[in-house]
Amino acid sequence: MDSGGTAGVGPCHSREREPVGVPRRAVLTGVVASLGLLAGCGVRLDLPQPPPPVPTREKVADEDLLVGFVRDVRVLVAQAQALPAAEAAHAAVRDAVRVLREQDVVLTGRLTNAGVPTAVINTAPVSGATASTTAAPDAATGPGRLGAVLAELPTGRWESLAGSHTDTRLILLSATSARLAAAVRLGAAVAPQGQSPQAVHAALLERTAPLVYGFEVVAAQSTGAARTAALTTLDALHALLDDVGPGLPGRALPGGWQLPYAVTTPQAAARLARDLLRRAIGATPQLVALARSATGLEDVAAWSARVQALGPAHGIPLTAFPGTSGGPRS
User: Of 159, 164, 215, 273, which has the fewest Cβ atoms less than 10 A away?
Assistant: First the structure.
């Protein structure tokens, strides 16, 4: 064995030197080959480091409830768009779609502004308290089919609202009442269940009776089509009073009200009709503050829906969030 050799030294420890006079290209080729040998020997080269783990996003308050509500609204819009053209052209159907679309825009904006990714909103599954029915009851025909769907709220809607934060409860109850108002205008039956706490029941009665009295004056001072509209509204308010104040003898009204101004002309009567309805629709925040239970919220929403549904006949269109910043202005 040649004592000047490299016996016992593996390729990763080779100390052979570059021969003198070797061309530069050959040297570069040898360097590349050496790098391959080093990698094969387990020597770590300067490779890119793995990306750091993505931090887990914390959900915003009531995120699941709000996202589910948006998803539910989008399902309803899709169902409305699937109606035959003649039904979709109905004024009350168009109003319902307009309200639902505005709710989608506002609530989606609320979520994205809070940092909820759009992908989370768009891919949310329909489940439990956020899933609407997919078909109207068989008895419903024409535009009433959409009304029946709108009136059939997702299971657990009131319980979920009762357990939400105060601001979420207000905005979602307001939106739900608008949905129910659209259902009423399409012929669906929506009525308070009469199982709310006494404070809520008393508040609803206290706000309904003046409406009845006020529209008796409106009807008396109106003429022509305005009188017909006032009498139709008065009938609806009497029915609502029966629902919130059962047992009143002969529809007797508690007294003690004064009109906010003299009403002796048809113009003043039209003004009073609008003012009465706007004030009642705008009472949502006060009523929601009283109704913290599921049954109380249900009765407040049904009452508000019935009042809202009377608005269009008196120049007050349905709004997406009645009683809140998006509601009717006085």
Answer: 159
Contact 60, 115 (CB under 8 A): yes
Do 270 and 219 touch, CB atoms closer than 8 A? no
- Is 242 buried (19+), middle (13-18) or exposed (0-12) by CB count in 10 A? middle
In a domain, 83, yes or no: yes
Q: How far apart are CA 236 and CA 317, in angstroms?
A: 17
- The pLDDT value recorded for residue 249 is 47
In a domain, 99, yes or no: yes
How many domains does the chain divide into? Answer: 1
Query: Which residues form the domain of 236?
Result: 63-124+141-314
Confidence bin at 130 (pLDDT 50/70/90): very low
- Asked if 298 and 158 touch (Cβ cutoff 8 Å), the reply is yes
